[in-house]
Amino acid sequence: MLKTRLLRTALGCALVIAIAIMPARAIAAVTIVVNGATISFDQPPIERGGRVFVPLRGVFERLGASVVYDNGTINATGNGRNVQLKIGSTMATVNGETYTSDVAPFLVGARTLVPLRFISEALGASVNYDSGSQTVSISTGPVTSGATAAPAVDLTNLHPPDGGVVQSNKPAVSASFLEAVDPNSVKVTLDDRDVTSATAISPTDILFTPPYALSATSHTVRVVGTSKTGVSFDKSWSFTSGTSTVDNYLRNIVPADGSTVGGTFTVSGTALPNSQIQIVAASVALYGGVFRMPAGSYNADLTADAYGQFSQVVTIAVVGGGDVTVRITASRATSNTATITLHLKS
After folding, report:
1. Beta-strand relationship, 31-34 and 135-140
2. Which of 159, 175, 239, 343 lies at a 20 to 30 A Cα distance from 202?
C-alpha cells in the first residue's frame, strides 16, 4: 500500500525538531539523474540526518509534475497523483489521504527543499542509490494499483569506503541504511565470519570494530536482513587493510644462553625498530645441589631505538653456583610478540 510505502521512506529520519536544529551539509558531489538525464541545481542538494533534500522544482518538474507553492503549502501533481506538504510539518496528503512522517520540508533562503525519496515515490517514481558513484537515479514508470513496488534497502556512508584502503588493521567499520530496517533481522559478516554480536545495529546504522587484527588483503563486509516493511536485502562492500601484522624477532642477544654472569650484567640485542622491550630476571640458589631457593629478581621496561637496538644493565642478587633465568619480550602495535628465555649460571 502507498501509505505503508510512504511511512517506510520516512522511518530512520530525524524528528522534525531535531532536523530544525541539525546543521545542514551541502552535498554537491551527489549526482541526481531523472529518467536518464543528470540534473544540475543552483541550490545544491543538502543532507540532513542521512537524507537528501533537493529544491522543490528542480527534480519534480522533470518528472512531469506541476508544482504550486502557496503560503507554506506545497502542491505537486503528476503521474495521476496529488501530493500536498507544508513547510515544517510532518503531515502530508496523497490523493486526499493523510499520512504522517518524520520528514518535513524546510526553507533555505527563498528556496524550498523537500526530501528527495519521499516525494519522488509519492509521485509514483522509483528511486535507487549507487553508493559507489554516489548517484541517485529517479525514474517514472507505469503505476500499478496506485503504488510502485518497494525498492530494496541500500547502504550509504560506507566506512571504509567501497574499494578503499585503510592503514589500521582494526578499522572502524560502519554504514547507514537508506531505508529503515528491523535491527533484530540484521546479520553482519566480515570475510564470511559472523561479527553480528560485535556490531552495534540500529534501524538506520551499523558500526563495529573487528575484534581481531586484519591481514593486509581485501576484506568484504556483508549485511543481510529485512526492512521495517519486510523487504529482504543482501548488501556488501569491500576494502583493503594496508597494515600487515609482521613477526617481531630477537637477535644478537647478549649474554649468550648458558653463559656465567655475576650480580651485574648487561642484556642487549636487536628487535623490530621502536619495539617495547621487557626484561624479567630471576636468580635461584642451589643448596646441596638439590634444593632451589629464590635469591633475587629484576624487571625492566625499555624501548628499542630506530634501528631496533636495545641495552639494559641488570642488577640482581645471585649466589655462586646458582641459576639465573632471563626472559626477554619484544612487542609492537603492528607486530606479533617475540620472546626468548636465557638460562644462565652465576
Report:
1. parallel
2. 239
Q: Which residue has cell 609492537? A: 332
Task: Enumerate residues 6+ apart whose C-beta is below 8 A from 164.
Answer: 239, 240
Q: What is the CATH number of the domain that holds 314?
A: 2.60.40.3930
DSSP 181: B
The CA distance from 34 to 138, in Å, is: 5
Task: Check residue 289 and give its pLDDT.
Answer: 58
What pLDDT score does 220 carry? Answer: 93
Whole-number Cα distances in Å, 312 to 254, 300, 345:
10, 8, 19
Asked if residue 135 lies in contact with residue 30, where contact means CB atoms within 8 angstroms, the answer is yes
Task: Give yes or no: residues 166 and 133 share one domain.
Answer: no
Q: 3-state DSSP: the chain helix, strand, coil percent, rounded to 5?
A: 10, 50, 40
Closest to 327 (Cα-Cα) out of 336, 317, 337: 337
**Mean pLDDT, rounded, of the chain:** 78
Q: Domain end: 105, 140, 175, which one?
A: 140
Residue 46 identity (one-letter amino acid): I
Number of separate domains in the chain: 3
If one counts every other C-beta atom within 10 angstroms of the C-beta of residue 276, the result is: 17
Assess whether pLDDT exceeds 90 at residue 97: no
- Are residues 132 and 12 part of one domain? yes
Residue 61: domain span = 2-140
Which residue type does 280 have? V
Confirm if 99 and 3 have CB atoms less than 8 A apart: yes
CATH (domain of 170): 2.60.40.1220
Please compute the mean of the pLDDT values over residues 156-166 and round it to a whole number. 84
Q: Which of 75-89, 175-189, 260-274 has the lowest mean pLDDT?
A: 75-89
C-alpha cell at 158: 560506507
Same domain, 185 and 282: no
In DSSP terms, 175 is beta-bridged to 206
